[in-house]
Design a protein that fits this description.
This protein is about 35% helix and about 25% strand. It is of the alpha/beta class. The N and C termini lie far apart (about 40 Å). Bound molecules: magnesium ion. Magnesium ion binds next to loops.
Length: about 210
């Protein structure tokens, strides 16, 4: 089995909220971009247990790029006890808080991507303030709350280089299908005039920075 197929098969087994077709599209969009601009600096917001990091990491490895995988690892609002996406197995018994970092580390180690996917642990906006590296690819897949989604958008999208790729997950034009903030930041990116839409799959959108 090729390294690529091994990684994509493995990604399908990792716990998370990325449907298979969207995960494969994430890989394809990133690979196509990476093949045009090797040795890129990529960053994802919202790492959870590392599922999308393996899809993106497979493309990063193939193009000598590096993926920073950023998360506070305490779960978003919708992941907390009593909410729809709560998973009790991810609670740290020592303090009763969600902690997805051990699962994320195990995923990246099992995928043998530890030299390609680099974890950043902390609040997105704090990290952004001190992160000055231009980004070839940014994938926004963090919290869906209005404040959180907009903060991620405002802190990170200016770091994308012209010609770079902005990927956004959980974009639902119909409010019945999911929360609004990811859709709102997707619309804001287009309306800013700085991005044009390139591709989509399910709730995943791919935009290119044009100026
Ligand atoms: Mg998502």
């Amino acid at each position: 089995m090729s390294r690529r197929d091994e990684l994509l098969d493995y990604a399908g087994t990792v716990k998370g909220f990325m449907p298979r077709d969207e995960g494969l599209a994430l890989f394809e969009f990133a690979l196509a971009h990476g093949e045009r601009s090797h040795r890129g600096t990529w960053l994802e917001i919202g790492a959870w247990c590392g599922k999308s990091a393996v899809y993106l990491g497979a493309a990063a490895e193939a193009t000598n790029s590096v993926l920073y995988s950023l998360d506070h690892h305490r779960g978003s609002e919708e992941n907390q006890a009593g909410w729809e996406h709560f998973d009790a197995s991810l609670v740290d018994p020592s303090d009763g808080r969600l902690n997805t970092l051990p699962s994320w580390q195990r995923t990246i180690a099992e995928a043998r991507l530890e030299s390609t996917v680099i974890g950043l642990v902390g609040p997105s906006v704090v990290v952004a303030t001190h992160f000055n590296q231009p980004l070839d690819i940014l994938f926004i897949d963090g919290g869906h709350g209005r404040d959180v989604a907009w903060a991620d958008y405002e802190a990170w999208t200016p770091k994308i280089v012209v010609g770079g790729l902005l990927l956004i997950h959980d974009v639902f034009a119909n409010p019945d299908d999911g929360g609004r903030p990811p859709y709102e930041i997707y619309r804001a990116a287009l309306e800013s005039g700085a991005f044009i839409e390139r591709a989509e799959c399910g709730s995943l959108r791919a935009l290119t920075r044009v100026h």
